[in-house]
Each structure stands twice: as structure tokens, then as C-alpha cells.
Design brief:
Layout: H1 3-7, E1 11-12, E2 18-19, E3 23-25, H2 41-52, E4 57-59, E5 63-64, H3 84-94, E6 100-106, E7 121-122, E8 140-141, H4 144-164, E9 168-173, H5 178-183, H6 198-215, E10 221-227, H7 238-251, E11 255-259, H8 274-279, H9 284-293, E12 298-301, H10 307-315, E13 321-324, H11 326-330, H12 334-339, H13 356-361, H14 363-377, H15 389-410
């Protein structure tokens, strides 16, 4: 097959949802809600742009299930139906080309900064490593009743998402958020029914999945984003991840997206092996291990930059869907161009300011890409070039402007 024919193949999930092609826009945190965490018209405009760009599946940035616990300012929170009209507009725009649109559901657990939450929760009261304790408070261990409440909050949010017109939800079980914390023996040191053994640490995500299935229709897709590993001493391992995938597969999960790392050990921020660079995607080798273990639809995200690399990953059988994030932040129509026969090589490159501390943290770079999502939400074209120090100036200007607006809103 040519690369176009490979990537243009439709794919039907277990739920019966049919995706028109193999491109999947992976979650990027938009932070485009209101200051009190409500959905906005800008989200509909942004996802309409991506739908028009040709992706077969769009997955939103993390939508929080509890407004008391958010990961970033301006996260959208979905814990009731107050924004149903705006959610319906978002869903209609995001599915207008016959593609799928999934809402990613999340609870940050301990990964909620002090400026947002001075009393975060987690399976156990395990603090962050010393250099991060200035930003994140030591969490309080959840009670059993609180755990049951969170499970029902995931389910309620999923039911509202379906009512609004989203075609599925994705449980965020990666990157050190609450589901990931329950799975990790480093973060979960409980000795009750929610921890102490791999099977008990897995119970939380299993119950979240079952609760969502219990309140949504058979044709509504439910997937999960899961770490291949935490890359942290005493953390979640590849073998444990394979066990979780096998369990969820047997329960009927529609799709597994593979990722890795957390705030303390961000896998994709570290230098990649030469073999990984050659294949472009960070987690293809682990995806192949999953293939040998179970038969489940897979999506691999992280590192894809060329149409050849994307087509090769699908043709090899290692993944069913090609997860793309940053390339779609600057070239939202790249799937459509590839499907039209273009030999694509993404313009995405590391943005370097020359200031080592800033470049090592990569915070400016993340902020710059988030800025491009904001531009599309306002109906503007994203910028596509690396501007080094000029990129830093733009980010600082936006952050300063937000700070002034926030003070004015607060009456300071």
C-alpha cells in the first residue's frame, strides 16, 4: 500500500464507532475554559478547525471531573449540566466531518499546584521530590468513601459528554494524574482494598471503567490513555501496564493509547534512543509487546513527524491509530494534506532560546504551543516557525496580559 492508502483506511472500534482514517489528534491541554472553568465558544472553533483538517479521531485536552481539583487554570470542569448548550456546540463542531470526538476525563490527584489547591488528594500522602515541593503540596490520602465518590464523578461526566454529542471518552490514566497514582506502588502505599498488590492498585481504574460503561450506551466509545511505565524507581512497570491492558481488554475497552512518564519524570522530554528516533514514535516497541499479549485497538502518540513514519507504524501492525499532538498545533490540516498525497515533514522543531534553564524546563515551549491553540480558537492561523527568543517574548507578553486581566477580574 502507499502511505496514503495505509492511513486512509477506516477503522471500526469495539463499540461500533467507525473512524474514517488512522489519524488521531492526541490530547493537548487547551486551558481555554473560563476563569471559573466553564466551556467556551473558542473550544468549538478550535475543534471545528481540527475536524476540517482531516483527523479521524479528536481527543480533547483533560476535562476535569471535580471543580475542587483541577490541574491548571482555565481547565474545563464537567460535573453538572450547566454548560450543556456550549458542550453541544463543541461536540457539533468537533464531529462535523464525520470524525470521532472523545472527551478526555481527568482528576489530577496530587498533581494540582499549590496556587490552585492547597489540599490535594492522592491514594497515599506521598510528597513530590524535594525540588518540586515548592510548587506542589503534600497530598492527603483519600478515604474509601471519597474514592467511591470520584468513581461516580467519572461516570457522571461521561454521561453528560454523551448527552452533549461526544462520541466517546478517554480515561486519563497516564502522566502521573490520579488514575496513574493509584496504579503506581510509589504513589499508592495503601494496605486496604485499593492498594497493596498490583490487582488492588488496579481496582480503581477497573471500577472507573465499569461505572462509565454502566451509564453510557453500547455505541459510546470508552478508551484509556495509559503509561507504558512511570520511569521512576519503585513506580509502575511495563509488566504491570501489560496486566492492566489485558484486564481492561477482557472487560471490553475500545482503545488503549500508550504514553509514559509523569511530572517528575517526563519520558518524552528526555533524549530518545537512536532506534526510537528512526521509528519516530516513542512507545512503538512497547506497543508491539502489547500486540503479542492481547488483541486490542492501539494508539501510539509521541514523536511522529513525517508521513512515512506514520504510514510505516500502521503498516507494521504496531499501532492502529497514529497519535499526533504538536504537529496539529501548528499545521491543523496536515492529515488532509497527507491523505491528498503530500509527502509530509512537520515543521515542529525544538524551540531554543539559548537560556539553558528555560530550554531545559521546556515550559516556554509548552506555553508557545498552547498559544497556537488559542490563536485557532480565535479564528486565527497558528504560527508555524521557530522564533527562539521572539517566542519567549510572545509567551511572556501573553502571561503578563493574563495576569493583569486576572487582577482586574478579582478587583485588585
Amino acid at each position: 500500500m502507499t502511505q496514503t492508502a495505509t492511513l486512509d483506511q477506516p477503522f471500526t472500534l469495539r463499540s461500533g464507532e467507525s473512524l474514517p482514517n488512522r489519524f488521531a489528534k492526541s490530547a493537548m491541554s487547551e486551558t481555554m475554559g473560563t476563569m471559573n472553568n466553564r466551556a467556551t465558544p473558542e473550544l468549538a472553533r478550535l475543534y471545528g478547525t481540527w475536524a476540517d483538517g482531516g483527523s479521524g479521531l479528536l481527543i480533547t485536552g483533560n476535562v476535569m471531573i471535580d471543580r475542587r481539583h483541577i490541574g491548571e487554570p482555565k481547565n474545563v470542569v464537567l460535573d453538572d449540566e450547566r454548560d450543556l448548550a456550549q458542550l453541544k456546540a463543541w461536540a457539533a463542531a468537533g464531529t462535523r466531518q464525520g470524525n470521532g470526538l472523545w472527551m478526555q476525563l481527568n482528576h489530577p490527584g496530587k498533581q494540582s499546584p499549590k496556587i490552585l489547591n492547597k489540599a490535594p488528594v492522592s491514594p497515599s500522602a506521598v510528597p513530590f521530590k524535594k525540588e518540586m515541593q515548592g510548587m506542589f503540596a503534600t497530598p492527603r490520602a483519600l478515604t474509601s468513601d471519597e474514592i467511591e465518590d470520584i468513581i461516580q464523578r467519572f461516570a457522571r461526566s461521561a454521561a453528560i459528554a454523551e448527552k452533549a454529542g461526544f462520541t466517546g471518552v478517554q480515561i486519563h490514566g497516564a502522566h502521573g494524574y490520579l488514575v496513574s497514582q493509584f496504579l503506581s506502588p510509589h504513589h499508592n502505599q495503601r494496605d486496604d482494598d485499593w492498594g497493596g498488590t498490583p490487582a488492588k492498585r488496579m481496582r480503581f481504574v477497573v471500577e472507573v471503567y465499569k461505572a462509565i460503561r454502566g451509564v453510557t450506551s453500547d455505541g459510546f466509545s470508552v478508551g484509556i490513555k495509559l503509561n507504558s511505565a512511570d520511569f521512576q524507581r519503585g513506580g509502575f512497570t511495563e509488566e504491570e501496564s501489560l496486566d492492566v491492558i489485558e484486564t481492561l481488554t477482557n472487560l471490553g475497552i475500545d482503545m488503549v493509547e500508550i504514553s509514559g512518564g509523569n511530572y517528575e519524570n517526563p519520558a518524552m522530554a528526555k533524549g530518545a534512543k537512536a532506534s526510537t528516533v528512526a521509528r519516530e514514535a516513542y512507545f512503538l516497541a512497547f506497543a508491539e509487546k502489547v500486540r503479542h499479549r492481547v488483541n486490542v485497538p492501539l494508539m501510539v502518540t509521541g514523536g511522529f513527524r513525517t508521513s512515512d513514519g506514520m504510514a510505516d507504524a500502521v503498516a507494521s501492525g504496531a499501532t492502529d491509530l497514529v497519535g499526533i499532538a504538536r504537529p496539529l498545533a501548528v499545521e491543523p490540516d496536515c492529515p488532509k494534506r497527507i491523505l491528498a498525497g503530500e509527502s509530509f515533514n512537520s515543521v515542529v522543531r525544538p524551540i531554543k532560546t539559548g537560556i539553558k534553564m528555560i530550554d531545559d524546563l521546556a515550559l516556554m515551549e509548552v506555553s508557545w504551543y498552547t498559544r497556537q491553540l488559542e490563536r485557532m480558537g480565535k479564528g486565527k492561523a497558528p504560527r508555524t516557525h521557530d522564533r527562539g527568543m521572539l517566542s519567549l517574548v510572545e509567551v511572556i507578553g501573553v502571561m503578563a496580559s493574563r495576569g493583569v486581566r486576572n487582577k482586574l477580574r478579582a478587583g485588585e
